[in-house]
Write a structure and sequence with these properties.
- Helix 1 runs antiparallel to helix 3.
- The protein has 101 residues and is of the alpha+beta class.
- A hairpin with a 6-residue loop joins strand 2 and strand 3.
- Helices cover 34% and strands 35% of the residues.
- A four-stranded antiparallel beta sheet has the order 2-3-1-4.
- InterPro entries: ABM_dom, Dimeric_a/b-barrel.
- It comes from Pseudomonas shahriarae.
- Keywords: Monooxygenase, Oxidoreductase.
């Protein structure tokens, strides 16, 4: 399997909110295997800004990523995280293919 699409959610955690936020993020990652086309999710802490975390999702295709956006679970996560975080930044990246060239 090749990674053809990636989504990221950069989260700046507020003081004293780490535990609740981490529980929410780890529960989300634990459900990643059930989404069609999902190759996995990972959570990485910034080495320069210890209050910043990056949640990354890896997808077989743009269609699988779009279906994930449409199912509402990511939106629910953003809403839950937004209540605990100081800031959130979302991005998506697509592989360059002949059809997208």
């Amino acid at each position: 399997m090749h990674i053809n699409a990636v989504n990221t959610l950069e989260i700046e955690v507020g003081e004293g909110r780490d535990e609740v936020l981490m529980q929410c993020l780890h529960a989300f990652i634990g459900r990643a295997g059930k989404w069609p086309g999902c190759l996995g999710y990972g959570l990485t802490q910034s080495t320069h800004q210890t209050r910043v975390w990056l949640l990354s999702g890896y997808w077989e295709s743009q269609a699988a990523l779009s279906a994930h956006f449409a199912d509402g679970e990511l939106g629910t996560l953003v809403w839950q995280v937004g209540r605990q975080a100081l800031g959130i930044r979302f991005n998506r990246y697509l592989a360059q293919t002949d059809e997208h060239a």
